[in-house]
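Write out the 3D structure for:
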Amino acid sequence: MLSRFLKLLRPRGPVRLTESVSIGMAAHGNSATTRQALEALFASATGNFELILVDDKSPDDTLDVYFEARKWHANTRIYSFTRNLEYCESVNAILSHASGGRIIFLSNDILAAPAYLRRILAAAAANPDCGIVRGCSNFVDNRSAAHNVPIGSCETREAYFDIADEIAVRHRDSPLLDDRFLVGDAFLVSRALIHRIGTFDTRFLGYYGDVDFSLRARIAGFRTVLDRSAFAYHMQDANFAYLPEDERARKLARRYERLGAALGEFVHKYGIALTQASVHDLPLEELAGATFDPALHYVAPRDYSQYLLR
C-alpha cells in the first residue's frame, strides 16, 4: 500500500536539469561500479546539464565508460590525469571548470535517484546562505545517526528509487541540519561559495580536504547543511570489494596511513593542539569562529585544461 502511495506522489520520469546545474564524478579504477553510478544518474536526470567526468589515472577501462557516457549525454567533458593525483585534485578539476550555479559532486559509488536530485537542488535554491548541502545515505563514514539511514535490501534501481521517494516524503518538512563538517562522497556546492573560498586545499591528499573545505565555508559565513529528505544510495565498500584480497589489504593500510598524515596536516594548518587522533575531536566550533583570512581560507581554482580529452 505504501509503495503504491509513493508512486502516486513521485513526479513522473527523471529530473529535467538545465546547464545551470553541473554534475561531476571522479574515479580511480572500478569501472563496473562507475558504470552503475552513471546509469543511475542518466535514469535520474535529463536535459542539458553539464557533466564533468574525471579519470584519476585508472588502471582499467574507466575511460571507455566515460566515452560511452559522452555519447549518451552530449554536454560532457572528460578530464584524464596522467598520474594518480588523488581525491582533492579530482574534486578541484570539477569545481574549477564547472560553469553551473549549482555544482553536485558524486563519488563513483553513489547512486543518485530523482528524489535525491530534486530535494538537494530545492534546498539549495530556497536557502542561498547554504554554501554546501548534502543528503543522507545508507552509509556515511561519520557515525552520525542523522546521516546514516538503515535500509533493507536494495538490489534493483527501482528499490533505491522507492527508498529515496519514501525518505523525501518522510522528511519533506524537516528543517535543514547544520553540519560540523563535510563528508565528501556526495554534496552540492553553490557558485557563491566557490567565489568566496575557492576550491579544495590540495595539501590534503585523499582525506581531510572535505573537512577543511567545509570549515572554510563556515568561516566565510556560509551554512553547511544536511538535508534529510535527500537520500542517495551508497554502494558501501564497492571501491574495495572488487580488488584482490592482497590489494585490498594494501589499499586499507594506505588509507590509515594517509588519514594520519592528513590529520597532522590539518592540525599544522590551523595551529591547534590535538590529543585524540580523530576528526570528531577537532575543535571545529571554535575554529569556525575565526575571521576570514584569504591567505589561509581561500584556495584559487586551478586550470586543469591540459587533462581535457577532446
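The mean pLDDT is 90.
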